[in-house]
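ESCALATION

Customer reports they have been waiting on this structure for their group meeting. Please prioritize. Original submission:
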Amino acid sequence: MTKKAILCVDDEKIILHSLKAQMKKHFGDRYQYEFAQSGDEAWEVIEELHRDGIKILIIVSDWLMPNMKGDELLIQVHHKYPDIIKVMLTGQADREAVERTEQLANLYRCLHKPWTETELIETLLSGLGDKE
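Update from on-call: job pushed to the front of the queue and completed.
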């Protein structure tokens, strides 16, 4: 059976810790959870998982990060891995960035900070749909 992963990208460690706690609480060990603090680090994780035969099901990415914004990352990911579900988690993305990501990266959903655990889990569950 292929291992499956969820990747979270945010430049704030506290956000990544919160996401991990909420996902593990709901999904337990069903998925491998990976975390990156930048777009560049996310690409390193994506390539490593791909080499190891681990399928990334969902990427949850912040928008406002140093060097590479979340919309840029998600658009690049979509071009190389179109089957990955893309979720933006942001407190600062402008409407144009969200619309651009919807159009160019098939953005599944945009969650706004502060999010609720229910909102996150419902988004992940519906995004995973038949991929589980």
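Sent to customer with the following note: The first helix runs from residue 13 to 27.
Escalation resolved.
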